[in-house]
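pls design
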């Protein structure tokens, strides 16, 4: 994109399409509404819990894909409760250090 193109967008001579706005938001790591005047901006804490951020963590997508394959609702609920319990324990300093694995 040239400087002249940016000037045209700034002055409103050229319009920015929806797909381009989406690309801009993705590159900047912000939500699409935050690109508009008067829209609230995300705080660091909010962006750290965004779906995009969570899915960028190692193994998150694999966990979600595996969870989706479980047909039994009771099993899914039990797994969810297990994950929530483990995350609460980790938040309170319990459990093994990062990188420790059981075989």
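designed seq:
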């Amino acid at each position: 994109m040239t400087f002249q193109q940016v000037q045209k967008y700034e002055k409103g001579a050229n319009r920015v399409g929806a797909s381009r706005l989406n690309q801009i938001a993705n590159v900047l790591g912000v939500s699409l509404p935050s690109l508009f005047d008067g829209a609230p901006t995300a705080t660091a804490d909010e962006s750290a819990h965004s779906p995009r951020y969570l899915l960028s963590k190692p193994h998150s997508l694999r966990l979600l894909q595996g969870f989706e394959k479980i047909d039994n609702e009771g099993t899914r609920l039990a797994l969810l409760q297990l994950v929530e319990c483990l995350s609460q324990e980790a938040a309170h300093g319990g459990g093994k250090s990062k990188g420790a694995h059981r075989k």
